[in-house]
Amino acid sequence: MNKLKQRATIKDVALAAGVSPMTVSNVLNGRMQYVGVATRKRVEHEIERLNYRRSTTARNLRVAEQRSIGMVIVDESPAFLADFFTCQVVAGLTNVLNVADYTLTLQGVPMASLARSMIVRNYEVAGFCAMISGPSTERNGVIQLLAGLEQPLIVFQEELAGPSTDICTVRQDDRGGGRLIGDHLLARKVRRPVMIVPMQHWPAVENRVAGVRDAIATSGSEAELTIVHANSESFADVQAAMAGYLDSHPMPDAVIGANDQIAVAAMLLLNERGVKVPDQARVIGFNGFESHRYSQPHLTTVLSPAYSMGECAGRAMLHRLKTGAFARKDEVLPVVFENGVTT
């Protein structure tokens, strides 16, 4: 029996739930005015239990090809689009797809809700893009789930071990950027750097931390990197984490933000406490989006090609849909170090 026949159909869901196929269709398409609450919950339970996902075969008999790409952002924060990096990636991806007359269907979802999300279970798209937060084992589980949908998949900011069938990774050189930061600070005799990172796991941040540690290890320096965890990337949480560290430890000679907004929040706290930046403590960020130019003093940072990553992903997906294969399985874009005027 082939794989297509093994998949649950809408009739299977209807039979299991004790309803008509039309009722299942109403639930799938959000026509809840025609479905009672108890019936809806019963249908949704069977959809999940049977691992039903709407087949595109019937629809493809009516239209020549899918003209939409799905993007899933696995993020615990409901404000998942507040992040500058995410917005730039989405903008670059959308604009490439727009030119090719494709749309982008975007959904932010917590890890625990992904398997039940509408975009994964039911939405008809030609391929998926994904940006995933969480511990590495959980991120790998998400990738396997999305790969199991048997559609082309692009994953941002991940490095995948081993061969992958229909998956392309698009990422920037975060580890290299971390090494640039480490080299910059070590050349200025920094010995007590602190790096502020959010509690939420992001592969990019993990690589930035690893890059700074690479630079220290390679140099043979006695410098020791201390990691300070903030509950989130918010201004209040970063300042609370930084204040807690300063109240119980000696003043670091450098503060590295996992991104620019973290670095700026730390810099403002140092200013409030009368610490002169960069004379008494250097501050470095990561990403280099336009907002970092408003800091005073001007922030040293690593410039991210986030918008170009989105464009790269869009081109890679269009090539895959046209030719049947990704041109490259791993696209890595370089980063650039920008030394601030005074930091």
UniProtKB/TrEMBL annotation:
PROSITE patterns according to UniProt: HTH_LACI_1, HTH_LACI_2
InterPro entries, A to Z: HTH_LacI, LacI/GalR-like_sensor, Lambda_DNA-bd_dom_sf, Peripla_BP_I
Entry keyword DNA-binding: yes
GO MF term (any one): DNA binding
SMART domains from the UniProt entry: HTH_LACI
Pfam families per UniProt: LacI, Peripla_BP_3
PANTHER family: LACI-RELATED TRANSCRIPTIONAL REPRESSOR, TRANSCRIPTIONAL REGULATORY PROTEIN
Protein's recorded name: DNA-binding LacI/PurR family transcriptional regulator
Protein source organism: Mesorhizobium robiniae
Phylogenetic placement of the source organism: Bacteria, Pseudomonadati, Pseudomonadota, Alphaproteobacteria, Hyphomicrobiales
